[in-house]
Amino acid sequence: MIEAVATAAPGAIGGDTPTISDRAFVIDGAVIVVVSLAIALFSQQLALMTVLVPVVLTGRFVLWARLSEQRRGHGGWAEALVCTVCLVFGAFNDWSSVVRHQIYDYTVPHYFPELSTIPIWMLLYWGMILRFFVSLCRWRRLAPPLRPDDAIRGLNGDHPWLKIGAQALLVVGTRQAIYRLAADPWWSWLPFAMAIVIWLALFRPSRHDAKLLALFAVGGPGIEIWYIQVGDLHQYALGWLGGVPLWIALWWLLAVLVGQDLSARLLRLVSGR
Prior knowledge:
Layout (H helix, E strand, L loop, with lengths): L21 H21 L3 H20 L3 H4 L3 H25 L3 E3 L13 H18 L22 H22 L8 H13 L4 H24 L3 E3 L9 H25 L3
Antiparallel strand pairs: 1-2
Helix pairs in contact: 1-2, 1-5, 1-8, 2-5, 4-5, 6-7, 6-9, 7-9, 8-9
């Protein structure tokens, strides 16, 4: 199989954003499939999951390291930084939502309940979930843009920092809203709907954005339903969609609009482009 490799155009400042080859994408996707099956079969077996998930993640890094740098998209140190960011952000966001603000609950055994009601293996897995998200957003088969679009409707020129700041406000604003309104049948999801409308009004969605939105409109709630109904992993209030609340379905859509942009910038930063 011939796989194109993204390269900088002659004279381009900073070069193009790294993309993910088929092989690298399959490795990351396989981790999600294996752990998802383990959740379905063994979520209540704490000791097994505490060992199994780190072993699977270690296997992923070994297989990833055996790929050529062209297929990986960047080197080992850059990957370590990307995975660290994904782990810190994913684990902290889940811990803040579950432990600090108690907007949903895990229904599986866990160690150290005085510190966290989320099992350690799940906190680790959140890092891999976000890493797979980055891989999907930059998978070559979906033809991701070579560089982030820094245009803002109504303004001339490019405004990268203004775009980053506006997206950060949408994320922070919706998170603060859900921390306070998770039990409200209307205001639990309306801030997310409004944030999506604001994003679409401010920025220009690309064909790549549309592909990701279509995938996550089904895949985001779908994997949550699997974890809830089959794996008995966690539970929400107002779980109208097979145990999934409407705000979670909308959160996935907002997350992919913001995340595809920020993950591309992260990859450019860590790979020195």
